[in-house]
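Thread: quick sanity check before group meeting

JM: Hey all, I'm pulling together slides for Thursday and realized we never actually wrote out the predicted structure for the chain we discussed last week. Dropping the sequence here so it's in one place. If anyone has concerns about the input, flag it before I start.
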Amino acid sequence: MDQFMEDPFLAASRGVGAGSRRGWDVREDNDALYLRMDMPGLSKEDVKVSVEQSTLIIKGEAAKETDNEDDRRRFSSRIDLPANLYELDSIKAEMKNGVLKVAVPKVKEEERKDVKHVAVE
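JM (edit): ok, ran it. Output follows.
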């Protein structure tokens, strides 16, 4: 349960109510999971979005503004996304005006391999 408090996306991806963290927004509909993250002061060149196995990794780091490491803007999150529920090869990300938007399409129910439809007689 502690991990759900740490990362609201992790909770959302597992069907637990989306947590609230300042600057984060998670929404889901029948087609996709939509993530929005405020990353003020960063440009698209400062942000990296990747998928490793079934984990979405979002990292952002501003170019070196000062010599003091504590003053640098850094963002980092790891979000577990079950591969059987989401199309991990079709994720789209857009960075504009300090806001990162990520869309993670869902696998259509009829295409899911873990769903077995039973004929009713």
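AS: nice. The beta strands are 24-28, 32-38, 47-52, 55-61, 74-80, 92-96, 99-105. DSSP finds two helices and seven strands in the chain.
JM: adding both to the slides.
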